[in-house]
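Look at a sample.

——
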Amino acid sequence: MNKSGPQTESRKLCEYAITAGTTAMNAQRLLRALKLQRPVLLEGSPGVGKTSLVGALAKASGNHLVRINLSEQTDVTDLFGTDLPVEGGKGGEFAWRDGPLLAALKAGHWVVLDELNLASQSVLEGLNACFDHRAEIYIPELGMSFQIQHEKTKIFGCQNPFTQGGGRKGLPKSFLNRFTQVFVDQLTSKDMEFIGNSIFPTIDEKIIAKIVEFNNRLVQEVCMEKLWGHKGSPWEFNLRDIFRWCQLMQTDQSPGFFNPGQHVALVYADRMRTEADKAMVLSVYREVFGEEYEPYCGSKEFHITPLNVQVGFSVLRRSGEAPVTPDPPLSITHQCLKPLESLMKCVDMGWMTIVVGPAASGKTSLVRLLALLTGHHLRVMAMNSAMDTTELLGGFEQVDIMRPWQQVLETVDYTVAMVIRRGLMSLDDGTQDTEFLLQTWGVFCQWLKENRLQRPRGTVNSEALNKLEVIILLLQKLNTKLKVFTDMSKLQMDFTLLKERLAQLEDGWTNGGFEWLDGMLVQALQAGDWLLMDNVNFCSASVLDRLNALLEPNGSLAINERGVIDGKTPRITPHPNFRLFLTMDPVHGELSRAMRNRGVEVYIPGENEGVCWDTLDLKTLLHSAGVTGDCVCDLLIQIHKGIRSAIWDSPASSVTSLLHAASLLFCQLQRGADLRSSLQHACTEAYSFCQRTVANQKQAQQVIEQHLAIQGTADWGDGLLSAGVWPDGFPSALLSTEDSCFSSVLRDGQVLLFCLNSLSLQGKRNRPLRLMDLQLALQSSGVHEDSVFSGGVVDLEEGDAFRLISTAVRLVTERASHGDWILRSSWLSNLGRSYKYLPDPVLVQVEAGNRALRAVFSSSLAVKGKTLAELLQPHSKDEYRILMDMRWNKQYLDILTNKCNFEDEERYMEFLEALNAVANRIVLMMDREERAVTCSCTISGAPQSSAMRVATAFNKGTIDMSQLPHPMLMHLRVFFDLWDAYVLQAVQSGQPHISDHVMFEILQLLQWRDHFWDVCIMLPADSQGISVLSLHWQWVQKHLVLRLPQLLMGDTGTTLEGQQDLQAVSAAIQNVLSTPRSVAAALKGIQRSLGKALPFKLESVAECASRLGVLSKALDVNKLKLDGPFSCWELVRLQGAGLWLDIKESLLEASGLVLSANNQLNPHESGILEKLVLSVEQLECCMTSKGLSGVRPMSDGEEQDSGVHMSRVELLQLRGKTQLWPLMEGLSVLNQLRLSTDLLHLALSPGDHNAEDCLRRELSRHLRFCLQSTPMNVGQLQCLWFLLSSDGVSGVSATFHSDPGSQWII
């Protein structure tokens, strides 16, 4: 049976699944019970379908069903009737009004008495005559009896087992004997699956089967076996939860794309009181559903526009009404976003939300925050134990003209404020009318105060109404022009009723009369307001159960206490915007299981449950309380943490105490106290005086003094700047509500503002950012536009602020929407003016982002992206939700795509690819537009002799071709201009699709262009600079010119405008800078033979090479300083480098053998390997014997020679050689360059044996000279020795000759 049913008379029979197995059995029992002329009592757990079963039978049989909810507050007169005041009648006029039960019996309707075991004993006794053999009701006030028509009227009682608490009690046996009792069985798994498939036919049966299995697993483990979930128990997991889950999927997703993991946390996990229990819920879910549907655990993404507010996957429409300033101010913290998302989803579905959590966990603030963001009026009802149903529903009160008068005044006051606000902010012709209205309203308020008409005990007269009517007419006139409110008819109607009431009062018609006054609940139901019942568990559970009928889906509330009017019991149908919230601290008790089952619980953990506040959240709260600066916030947080850790039972351990200290600090500073004494007073009041013992007070005072000592440091006041807090903090909830567009810009610009402020700290600035700046501002009576504060010198190479500027600007520009991009552009322009003292490179980056933003939204790509996004939301006109790149709000994109009915997954993927392709092209376009601005600004700062300045001058015609240092410069600037135009044109062409990895590859390739530009800016236009430019051009040609057009245009074959000119210019530069073909081939051959060492083939060869490296390093004296005293070890190394020619020759020969052994296929057979090993061992022994003991390990019994034995002649010889080393090294370098040239010439003319022999002799003499006269490392000569000792020269020549088509690119 569909237990999700609303009031039965408003449902269709097809909405009931009465044919399910257990439901059919329950219906059969009920039908058999109806055979007897006795009332029927249905008993069963919450959610089994008691009331819905009766409603289905009544609908099937064509009978009208009247539902009456009983509670401890219900009286017999509420059921049968009583004498009540005549509404609108004369003073003191009363008349009889039938109660709902008596009216139903008269009409022959079916009656359901819900929650029968909540009724008082007097009510049960009053019903005895109705239920027993007499079957009649006697009304003493009327002196009449009314018989029950058994052939028409059927009476049913419904109740939950009294063991479930909530004020329920066991009924007397004498009373139960008057009923035919029917126990309603629990639904089985098959029943739930059958009902689910019947009610939700679009959802796959396999998914519903797993949902039921998951629900039953929770019932088994939590409710029956009690394995976990003890805190907050007993729990209910029944058909209502399954229906909520399915309704969420049907609302948020489309057939074929259902994902139960998106809502399992809201329906089941969020109610759990511990993180371990929440994790267990998700663990059971994964066991049942597997890895196919991963559970969604909330998000911290927040977006707000003038029409919508979004947190994660929850989106709510905003009412558009201007908010009332909250007190205390509310902040949007990271910690509140996850429960806020759950709360928003419940509001979206129209479900009652029960927000549970310990004291000071933010339950009430969370609901107030949501009401503020969405623009709904929130009524707060503080519940208490003495509250009864009249405070919820209302009652009769004596007529008082001041009540409607004050209500109209409040409405007019709010309307005047909103109209004046809109009028003063508008630039239309309504400014004068607005000023006149403001003046008239001020005069009227002063007149009210003088005549005491603002007090409840005042007296209203016709003069007051006439004055108020003038203001209402002015409001209507100005509202018609400004269109603040769409309809002001309610205000006009209330004012008309007020005039009628005043006329009746003056005639004496209503003197002593009574009128019905609706309670706060009924007022909220009718007006569409939100109602928060705070500390709801203070109230009696039986009073709350009076609302059970209202809390059913599509439910309504019967006001039995008002009696029957015109034959009907007054019934309030909730306004579509009405929402009900309950908050409770479980330490004061739980709600009844029936009430908990009718709502969705969201648990907010407290500080004592392992929840750590985010530091940024704490600083945001402190800033909203009036604390200025990062260092002050850090100090308060450290004191707070120090008190908590030092005093375990401190009563000041919650965030409330921290905020209390912040408020006290702000008040002290407002009174003119200095910072140190203000901190001392605030912390002492908040943390010390509240301690329970004197010892704890002293300990708290010591902690405070210890932390306050940090104020004595010199640079403590320089740390005021804090990202996201001060001086530019995240927008408050009020600002986000009043100006959602600007708040979004500020939220996205936090990183940029922090970077700009950080750079401003190092130089001049026109806003105070340090404690000294604030003191100067106070001494000079505030901060003015021309105020300048000094600091250090800006160093762009130090810190990350400058390096982050480009990324920070992108955060502002790439998150732009089609509704706010103009605002973002204006904001960036204003930043450039506000931070005018920053270095030019910083301001250029900001301006580049601004121009790129304007260029993108003026292009066809932005129009195409908007068109694609509008296909997902054809009925929405919210341009603020259509982002330039929808992937910045991926969850909203998923919401839109999930609601679209794609034919299949392939069409879905095709659409996303098309949308992402446009976004990727927009990213590329924005990157190029930004680069174009920065490049144009860097030219002016480049040296006059730089290649780019010379090329630009030639391009402008200021110099002619004869003045160019190189012909390449005539094409350089033209190339960049044509290339940038081609890339922008290709990016906006729209074909082919550019995927994410292709976009990143394009961005990487474009860096070759940017690097080439930077090189052209830095290098001079001389021969050396041109040679370096030639190298970079070859890279640009290879990686950019030849590769990028294919990525941008694909194989479409389309030729863009200017593409042929670009190709011609590129070819011209290539021809001018490219190396001749023969020289390139020769260079490539040299590289192949000498420039690429082969990897070692044998481990023994690698070991020998390593040992030779140690030996060569011992003779490498290039890093020794020759102008100071030497150690023995250093003197030996100098002696070896300068005088040991034989050892150096042996080292060179051994190094050459390493190359020979590595180049041969089988060095074992040739004997080279054996010769190499023997040479290495001999060298080690020889060098060790000469005093270089660090060459090899010392053997046992071998002593190190502690002295160096050199004759005077050897010392003089060594001194002369070392003095000539610089000169000799220069000669060797020149000689080696000459040999390289000869080798290149030999390679170009192979077969010249005389030249080859001559080159060999020159190589031999060069090696001898280097070894004898220079300290050159032997490893540097290894390749030349290998070339000399083998057929390397002829081999190189043959290599060049055999590969004439190869081209060497430097």
